[in-house]
Design brief:
about 290 residues, alpha/beta, Rossmann fold, N-(1-d-carboxylethyl)-l-norvaline Dehydrogenase, domain 2, 2 domains, 8-stranded mixed beta sheet, 8 strands
Length: about 290
């Protein structure tokens, strides 16, 4: 089945980026939030992103308008009845995602594909929220931030995911210009299973006074040739997101390398979540 109409559930950092890249290749996008104002704010962020591309000469003003007209904000979950594909990009919490999938499964056509942007939660666990007949159409499609820039999609098959569903997501990712890697349905999948112990060890070095945040990050940038240091990367991802992923990894796999560092837990408890709140390991704007 060709994918022409995409319903993106969640208009935050990941959701609005996912909506933007689909509109850029001519897909009709419904951008959903339970509160219409939040969906509209997501479209406004897309407009601002496209404005920057026009300013840099990467797209024309006509391209900007053509993409924006394809994006329709909504607060009505019933509009999923028009979707060929649902991409869920809400908060990384199994209960939140499960409740949403249960509602959308009730409203969406039986042939609609369901893809979750989860970065760590089991696909099989989330698929339990939908009818058994839908589970063959349920898959993980993990984008990376910022979505319009990062060229990777992590495809995660659940135990019931069909070959046809995988093929459809691979084809769509190719249209989006993304490279696909495939992970089995294990905690953290591939990328975060590698990344989170690295970030965690940098945090432990910081809390033990091994080095200042700037020195730890410079060590990774200059010594390891990383484009961004681990502490600034954690701030960029969101410290609450990092904490949630580390908890999933530790619960699912055990191992000291997955234990969330105390400094991370303390920052999140204090509401210092990184760039989005203006303070994490650094204070923003820097």
């Amino acid at each position: 089945m060709p994918i022409e109409r995409v319903f993106v559930a969640g208009a935050g950092l990941m959701g609005h980026g996912i909506a933007q890249v689909h509109a850029a290749i001519g897909k009709h996008v419904t951008l959903y939030e339970p509160e219409l104002q939040r969906a509209q704010a997501g479209k406004e962020r897309i407009a601002a992103s496209l404005d920057r591309l026009v300013h840099k000469g990467r797209i024309s003003g006509e391209d900007r308008e053509a993409q924006l007209v394809l994006i329709e904000p909504t607060g009505d979950p019933g509009t999923v009845r028009h979707a060929d594909l649902v991409v869920e990009a809400v908060f990384e919490d199994a209960d939140v995602k499960t409740a949403l999938w249960r509602e959308l499964d009730r409203l969406a056509p039986e042939q609609t594909l369901f893809a979750t942007n989860t970065s760590s939660i089991s696909i099989d666990r989330l698929a339990l929220a939908v009818r058994p007949a839908r589970r063959a159409l349920f898959v993980g499609m993990h984008f990376f931030s910022p979505v319009p820039v990062m060229p990777l999609v992590e495809l995660i098959r659940g135990s019931a995911t069909s070959d046809g569903t995988e093929a459809a997501i691979r084809q769509l990712a190719g249209e989006l210009g993304k490279q696909v890697i495939v992970s089995t349905d294990r905690p953290g999948f591939i990328v975060n299973r590698i990344l989170m112990p690295f970030l965690g060890e940098a945090m432990r070095a910081y809390e033990q006074g091994v080095g200042m945040a700037e020195d730890i990050d410079a060590g990774a940038r200059v010594g390891l040739n990383h484009p961004m240091g681990p502490l600034e990367l954690a701030d960029f991802i969101g410290l609450d997101v990092c904490l949630g992923i580390m908890k999933v990894l530790h619960e699912g796999l055990g191992g000291e390398q997955f234990v969330p560092p105390k400094v991370l837990q303390d920052l999140v408890a204090e509401g210092h979540l990184g760039q989005k709140t203006g303070r994490g390991f650094y204070t923003y704007p820097r």
